[in-house]
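Re: that chain you flagged

S.,

Sorry for the slow reply, it's been a week of failed gels. I finally had a moment to sit down with the sequence you sent. For the record, here it is as I used it:
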Amino acid sequence: SVEVCATAPLGSLGLPAEHLLPVHLNDGNLGGRSVWTANCWDAWVVVDLGSQKTVTATAFHTGVGSPGIPAEYEILVSSDGENWREVVAVEGNQENQRIDVFERAVRARYVKLQTYSTTRGGWLTLDEVFVFDQNGLAAAQSYQSDFEKLLQDSRDFGNFMRLSWETSPYDT
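Prediction finished late last night. Pasting the structure tokens below so you have them in one place:
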């Protein structure tokens, strides 16, 4: 499952817009009609892998030129969802697609992308978030500069390269 800090509302009812829901974080689609947009600072996404897994890398993608590209962020891991350990810290990121390979594999059930600022001060906006296990490490390393190719190849060859999780389309 995936849990998020809050989803941006749209319109006078203050309800999340269909195209801004967290279900889009793992739907394999890129673009403005398939994103999640935060409505909180510091913005975060927590992926619950369902059980302890060996995790080797994470990846995210958002639109080119988006004001919501993660600029300063951490990747944290946890076994219980309460006690977190930093595995990656990034400052000054300008890339809209990024794969962060960990220095060493870690065991975790929960993986958190904790964002402190974005490139142009907008709400955090993400098309996709991936979590890689030890079987996906080689793919994460070889696709490190081309998330879109990684996504296309995972469609063509199956999701063997990354871990996946279920998301309710109405989670906010």
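What I noticed first: Residues 160-172 have pLDDT under 50 and may be disordered.

Talk soon,
D.
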